[in-house]
């Protein structure tokens, strides 16, 4: 049994020896055998991060099981890791309260009743988490709900850089929202089976940007300090109090951009603070060690280190488990790290589009949260608003479309609100969105089709397939035109003939066909595409985008605009000209799906009818331009702003349609 000097419950530490593991037939870590041979001790540290309320392996938006997510599945990896190395501690690195409909249900609909434990915290209790920190999304529902949720934990929450009220002169004197750190008193068994005391310090950090992202909840109530400066204040104090090993729970990403006060992704520079022995990172929903961070200075993706300090970032939604193995040697009356190994273990494998689960969910975790799961299913299937017009994507590639329109409306609403009290508030906000379900390789049923009337949260999956997060970029009028020129690569060049001509470029994915709302324009298909599908400038003198207007006048090439989009596009996804991440001005904490859900709830009744802000320019003589869509689209032909008629059946369940551009 373990004892602690803090008022925490007692729990088993699963202590054992390498010999005992071998006798039981369990697979054990090579570090355990090394510890036995060298007379040292093996300590394993485990991390979950960015769970975002994904406890069950289920996609509530699509209303079906999902083998790529779920803390209940990560739990199986945790059990395996503990069995391999009994001297193990488990930590959560934040962003657990918000991120799917279960989180919204708990915060917006039912709340936490007296004595009730939030489902994610209940799952963490089952897993016997040793400590956790807070992520930026923990603040999305306000401080009252946050503190009620934390109260259900059988483990300490730590966060050093968020304080109540005004800051003190020294960070160490702040009145922090929760305790800044904890020192866990444990017993560790060395390789020879001898038990020793060890004091493990755990400290937590969150991006200071919470003050902007959740200003409505936090303004005037709490403040946030720079991550690195806060660590520099507290780490010496933790050593003074006897911490042998210090672990930083950093809900902050990894970036090699120049260090600056209040930077969001500060984990690399946090690793430079003397006295930190291991860092758990998160927030960016990526994997470390791994190629996501290749070629960054002072980042070793082979050995999993930041400035020489072992670190992990195990994906998101329970997709991976972070593992840091430390080989410890006695150093007087304390311990020091001699060797280490880091990894992120997956719950599934993906080959092409096929997902193979590697573990099964742990029944105890499912049971602890089953009632909440059942309530969430009822919630997502229940209408949360109404749509005054049908939402479909059958003709999203040939005319302005309601499925794209509603996404743009939601993005514009969200980004404009974020900018209302910030820099760039005086600039016009445009919105870029693409049709995701538009047939193609997805097949003849791969379209959005939501009838007018009640709309449920799960319908949002039809509108937005991917878990992207909202972004905004700053560009000029000339940049808007180049963005649209790239999108216009969706189409083949069309000649002035009545012979049949295929409209769509098969090498151009529909998710790269961005429509920019807030301007009006036409696409002239008699001209060649300026860019190819990889973003290469192939026709420098070509210009398909004509009559580009803003506010009823030709767009000013020098004028500045804010464009709402997603992290994929803003960061360079799709190879769009002028989009490489350098002109991002808003890195919002919410997914685009969540933005749409909030917009529907806020509006009550939405009107997704396309406003016809784009169309094709006439091409005289081009009367037989064809494309494929679902036969189900025929019922919407009268509602689209293009001259389209059904030709007849096509292969693989599709139908052929004719577009008249004359």
Q: What is the CATH topology descriptor of the largest domain?
A: Purple Acid Phosphatase, chain A, domain 2
What's the CATH H-level superfamily name of the largest domain?
Metallo-dependent phosphatases
Low-confidence stretches: 1-26
Assign the CATH architecture of the largest domain. 4-Layer Sandwich
Secondary structure: number of strands: 38
What is the rounded Rg?
Answer: 27 Å
Percent range for β-strand residues? 25-35%
Mean pLDDT: 91
Provide the helix percentage. 10-25%
Estimate the global geometry from the Cα principal axes. elongated
How does this model look, in words?
The longest helix has 19 residues. This protein has 662 residues and is α/β, with parallel strands linked by helices. The chain folds into two domains: 360 residues, Metallo-dependent phosphatases (Purple Acid Phosphatase, chain A, domain 2, 4-Layer Sandwich), CATH 3.60.21.10; 277 residues, 5'-nucleotidase,  domain 2 (Alpha-Beta Complex), CATH 3.90.780. The N terminus is likely disordered. Strands 8, 9, 11, 12, 13, 14, 15 and 16 form an eight-stranded mixed β-sheet that branches. It has 16 helices and 38 strands.
Secondary-structure map:
Blueprint: H1 18-24, H2 30-38, E1 41-48, E2 58-59, E3 64-65, H3 71-84, E4 88-92, H4 101-110, H5 119-126, E5 131-133, H6 143-150, E6 157-158, E7 162-164, E8 181-189, E9 195-205, H7 210-213, H8 215-218, E10 222-224, H9 227-240, E11 245-250, H10 267-270, E12 278-280, E13 287-288, E14 299-300, E15 305-306, E16 309-314, E17 320-331, E18 334-346, E19 348-351, E20 354-357, H11 363-381, E21 383-387, E22 391-392, H12 402-419, E23 429-433, E24 449-450, E25 453-456, H13 460-463, E26 469-476, H14 477-487, E27 501-502, E28 515-517, E29 520-523, E30 545-550, E31 553-554, E32 560-566, H15 567-570, E33 584-591, H16 592-603, E34 605-606, E35 614-616, E36 625-629, E37 644-649, E38 655-659
Parallel strand pairs: 1-4, 4-5, 5-6, 9-11, 11-12, 12-16, 21-34, 23-32, 27-36, 29-35
Antiparallel strand pairs: 1-17, 2-3, 7-10, 8-9, 13-16, 14-15, 15-16, 17-18, 19-20, 21-25, 22-24, 23-28, 26-32, 26-33, 29-30, 30-31, 36-38, 37-38
């Amino acid at each position: 049994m373990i004892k602690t000097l803090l008022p925490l419950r007692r729990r088993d530490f699963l202590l054992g020896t390498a010999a005992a593991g071998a006798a039981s037939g369990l697979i054990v870590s090579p570090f355990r055998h090394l510890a036995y041979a060298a007379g040292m001790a093996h300590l394993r540290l485990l991390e979950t991060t960015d769970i975002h309320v994904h406890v069950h392996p289920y996609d509530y938006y699509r209303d079906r099981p999902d083998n790529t997510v779920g803390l209940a599945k990560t739990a199986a990896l945790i059990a395996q890791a503990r069995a391999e190395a009994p001297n193990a501690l488990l930590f959560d690195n934040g962003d657990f309260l918000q991120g799917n409909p279960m989180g919204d249900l708990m915060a917006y609909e039912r709340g936490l009743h007296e004595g009730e434990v939030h489902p994610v915290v209940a799952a963490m209790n089952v897993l016997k988490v040793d400590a956790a920190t807070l992520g930026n999304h923990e603040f999305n529902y306000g401080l009252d709900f946050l503190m009620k949720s934390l109260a259900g934990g059988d483990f300490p929450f730590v966060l050093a850089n968020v304080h109540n009220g005004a800051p003190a002169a020294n960070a160490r004197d702040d009145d922090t929202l929760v305790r800044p750190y904890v020192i866990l008193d444990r017993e560790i068994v060395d390789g020879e089976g001898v038990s020793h005391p060890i004091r493990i310090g755990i400290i937590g950090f969150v991006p200071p940007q919470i003050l902007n992202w959740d200003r409505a909840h936090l303004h005037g109530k709490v403040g946030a300090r720079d991550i690195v400066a806060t660590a520099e204040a507290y780490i010496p104090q933790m050593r003074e109090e006897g911490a042998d090993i210090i672990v930083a729970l950093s809900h902050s990403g990894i970036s090699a951009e120049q260090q600056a006060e209040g930077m969001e992704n500060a984990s690399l520079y946090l690793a430079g603070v003397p006295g930190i022995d291991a860092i758990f990172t998160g927030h960016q929903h990526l994997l470390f060690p791994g190629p996501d961070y290749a070629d960054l200075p002072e980042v070793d993706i082979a050995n999993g280190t930041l400035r020489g300090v072992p670190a992990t970032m195990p994906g998101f939604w329970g997709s991976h488990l972070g593992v840091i193995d430390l080989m410890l040697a006695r150093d007087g009356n304390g311990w020091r790290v001699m060797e280490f190994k880091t990894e992120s273990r997956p719950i599934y494998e993906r080959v092409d589009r096929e997902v193979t689960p590697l573990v099964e969910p742990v029944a105890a975790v499912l049971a602890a949260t089953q009632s909440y799961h059942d309530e969430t299913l009822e919630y997502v299937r229940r209408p949360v608003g109404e749509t005054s017009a049908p939402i479909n994507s059958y003709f999203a590639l040939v005319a302005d479309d309601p499925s794209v329109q509603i996404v743009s409306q939601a993005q514009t609403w969200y980004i404009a609100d974020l900018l209302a009290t910030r820099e760039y508030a005086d600039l016009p906000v445009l919105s870029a969105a693409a049709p995701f379900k538009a047939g193609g390789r997805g097949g003849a049923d791969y379209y959005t089709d939501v009838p007018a009337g009640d709309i449920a949260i799960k319908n949002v999956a039809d509108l937005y397939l991917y878990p992207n997060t909202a972004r905004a970029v700053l560009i000029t009028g000339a940049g808007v035109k180049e963005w649209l020129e790239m999108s216009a690569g969706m189409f083949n060049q069309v000649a002035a003939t009545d012979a049949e001509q295929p409209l769509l470029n098969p090498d151009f994915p529909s998710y790269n066909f961005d429509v920019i709302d807030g301007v009006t324009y036409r696409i002239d298909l008699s001209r060649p595409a300026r860019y190819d599908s990889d973003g290469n400038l192939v026709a420098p003198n070509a210009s398909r985008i004509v009559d580009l207007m803003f506010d009823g006048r030709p767009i000013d090439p020098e004028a500045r605009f804010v464009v709402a989009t997603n992290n994929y596009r803003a960061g360079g996804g799709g190879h769009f000209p002028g989009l490489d991440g350098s002109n991002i001005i808003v890195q919002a904490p919410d997914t685009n799906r969540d933005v749409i859900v909030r917009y529907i709830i806020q509006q009550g009744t939405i009107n997704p009818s396309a406003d016809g802000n784009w169309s094709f320019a006439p091409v005289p003589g081009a009367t037989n331009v064809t494309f494929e869509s679902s036969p189900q689209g025929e019922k919407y032909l009268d509602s689209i702003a293009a001259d389209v008629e059904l030709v007849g059946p096509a292969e693989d369940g599709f139908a052929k349609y004719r577009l008249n551009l004359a």
